[in-house]
Amino acid sequence: MTALRPDQLFTPCDSDDFEFKTTAELEPLDYIIGQERAVEAVELGIGVLRPGYNIFAYGPPGAGKRTTIELYLGRVARDRPEPDDRCYVHNFEVPHKPIALHLPTGWGPELRRGIIAVLADLVVILPQTFDSDAYSTQQEREHDPFEVRSSDVLEAVGKKAESRGLALLRSPEGMAIVPLGDGKPLGHPEFEALPEADKKRFRDAIEDTETDLASAMRSVRSIQREEREALAVLRRNVAAEEVSERLAPIRARFMTLPPVVKWLDSVSDDILDNLDRFLPSPEDEESQTLPTPERAQHIVLENHRLRRYLVNVLVDGSQKAGAPVVVEAYPTLPNLVGRIEQEQRLGALTTDFTLIKPGSLHAANGGYLVIEVDELLQHPLSWEAIKRTLKVGAIHIEPPAEGASTMTTITLDPEPIPFNAKVILIGDASTYHAFLEYDPDFAEWFKIGAEFGRTMPRHPDGCALYARFIMTVAARENTLPFDRVAAARVVDQGSRLAEDSLRLTTDFLAISDLIRESDYWARQAGRAVVTHEDVERALESSERRADLSRELVHESYLRGIVTLDVEGVAVGQVNALTVVGHGTFSFGLPVRVSARVRQGGGDVLDIEREVELGGPLHSKGVLILAGFLNGRYLPDDALAMQASLTFEQSYSLIDGDSATSTELYALISALSGLPARQDIAVTGSMSQTGEVQAIGGVNEKIEGFFDICVHLGLTGTQGVLIPQTNIEHLMLRRDVVEAVAEGRFHVHAVSHVDEGLELLLGRPAGQRGDNGHYPEGTVNRAVEDRLERLAAKRRDFDADRRGLHDGDDGLRGRRHPKRTERS
Question: Of 522, 525, 469, which Cα lies nearest the Cα of 494?
């Protein structure tokens, strides 16, 4: 057993080791410190340009995972090429399947601007062309031959009619055939006055002429169709010159891209097939005047009939300086893979390729996509979409969910866009290992696990890096510089948060908060440099903000609501040390552990487990304790005791094995009948051989008992018992260290439970001698004597029961006088 010196309770950073006066003299960091292993993993994942080498960065909160990723990607991305442009255009052959175009960087917007300019020109030029005198002359030139042919056909019918005594007359209703008398058309009365023979002759002639006229009209209609076709060819040829002339520069620019040239051919053909789209509508008065160039461009963008010729630029690589780095904060399915928007038109929801919107997978294409996995798991479809994208190497935009609306909808199936980017997920270790265990695809597509540690070594270089981190925050957030002593105090707090005097925390979120709050108190004091007092003030303020729950608990001890003895001795009763978490704040509290023993079958009853208030680790500790008892005492006989253990006045879940040694001491006290000191609180797990093992939260536990002792009154004998292996973890508060230095409080460290027994019970533990017995007057002798007495009683009880049963067997079936049996 070791009584610790004050210098073992706190290891300060020596400010004289710093070569600066204030941190303003230092260079800020451009990398995250203390995560070399994780950075190496990230470098490998980024550097291996093979499928599956995506990254899952995992570790504790505040360890700088996201900052490290973003800083590293920022440096790497600058030296990588800008991403190519990705566009969607109309598919003139299969309209519901838009075509994806892959263009060199910056060419997508150029193509879009060029097409808009062409369309705007055509909106102005085509109406002018078709209204021009030259075009009218050409139309007349085309029309006249057909007019002559039609007239000749009708004239031939007219001549035949005249030879039959008939005349062809034009009327608003069409052509009429009438009989002639003396060269003049006969009216109905004159016709009826004719002899029957003449009337029959006229009727036969009219019938023959009607047949000739019907045949002639068919010929005229055929001629008119030919005329319309000829005029259409004329209009197409005239328009083709204008369209070809305006598309020629775009064709020349994109001639090295066959898919673009093919699409331009389709655009040209479709424009010539649908020239009416570019002509003013008769009902639109505004369209009767030729638009200005600005108005023409507005018409192109607003007229839904012209949308089919536009270019939807999904990704414009020219907007990036190097490869893209995209951090998706809200990874819903549409935000990742894109979405197809809809608009209401004539009572239906319709859409087209111009309403396709990109997602972060498109934006990150050719670069890097960073996602917080906790956010990703809120949207299971998103995770499946990421895996599917990585598997097929393409982004498929899913149409809106069917049944989402009662209105009729038209949807699209856009051509998938090839995907080539690194996906970096950021999460914690438990999520990473859950993915490995439960998702068979995960290991194939996220081959690199970059683990971020909780701590880094506390050596001179590490302390110097901490000082440079203070300067980094100052450069980023304009905080005041820290003097050497203040910087050393930040280092001390880094060890306190790491729970290790030889290491520093990598929770730079917490350290950054300390820097900001220290800066605040320094400014409040009117200082130009942050001092040690400002850091202390920040720490005190932070603790006070979260301290209400601890204050209320302390009050319950002072008022006797929670019973705890910090003086005297008691049998079967020892004070344990626990840690209570309250949000981000945790504090230590002593709790009474009691044990009771009677004759039984060797069981150790864990009351916490029986009422489901004990976690699995606590239950494991009780079983280890039972294993220790069975291995140490009465090696040739079974233990004939029944023991019960409990945490007094505990009403919430208890887990962890740090109270195992405490429970053993309480049980040994109950077995031996030796009273245990109540002015010593105990923590430490143990092995089945009695070795005391390290526990967590040692600083909070010690301080928790110290605070209660201060409130109830320090006697000078009070202290704590901790594992020897926890000495290097001690970074205690200054008031605790001062109390130990003044002999008002004590910290004892043990490596075996026998040392703890001697301190608590005031007797030697005792070692088993050559005669097989423990020495008289030792703790172990008192325990084994008690267990032997319990075993003897158990043997007598079992013998009596066997005798009773034997008597029953011998008298079975016979009546015998009543007798008294020993139970």
Answer: 469
Q: Residue 627: what residue type? A: G
Q: Record the tokens describing residue 283, joined without a space.
A: 């009902």
Say whether 184 is catalytic.
no
- pLDDT higher than 70, residue 406: no
Mean pLDDT, rounded, of the chain: 88
Does residue 701 have an active-site annotation?
A: yes
- Catalytic hit among 518, 650, 658, 685: 658
Q: Three-class SS of residue 103?
A: strand
- Residue 597 is predicted with a pLDDT of 92
Long-range contacts of 414-417 (CB under 8 A, 24+ apart): 414/88, 414/97, 414/98, 414/100, 414/340, 414/353, 414/356, 415/88, 415/97, 415/98, 415/99, 415/100, 416/100, 416/392, 417/86, 417/100, 417/314, 417/362, 417/365
Rounded distance, CA 390 to CA 384, Å?
Answer: 10
Closest CA to 10 of 739, 750, 715: 739
Nearest alpha-carbon partner for 28 in 522, 521, 515: 515
SS3 698: helix
How far apart are the C-alpha atoms of 666 and 746, rounded to whole Å?
Answer: 21
pLDDT in tens, 582-635: 777 889 999 999 999 998 888 888 888 888 777 888 888 889 998 999 889 988
- In this structure, the number of other CB atoms found within 10 A of the CB of residue 375 comes to 16
The pLDDT, as a whole number, for residue 286 is 52
pLDDT confidence of residue 804 = 62
> Alpha carbon of 432 to those of 48, 387, 468, 546: distances in Å?
21, 15, 32, 31
> Tokens 């440079």 map to which residue?
468
Q: How far apart are CA 656 and CA 618, in angstroms?
A: 5
> Of these residues, 65, 320, 422, 701, which one is catalytic?
701
Q: What angle do CA 666, 670, 672 make, to 5 degrees?
A: 115
Q: What is the helix (H) or strand (E) element at residue 14, kind and residue range?
A: none
Contact 760, 571 (CB under 8 A): no
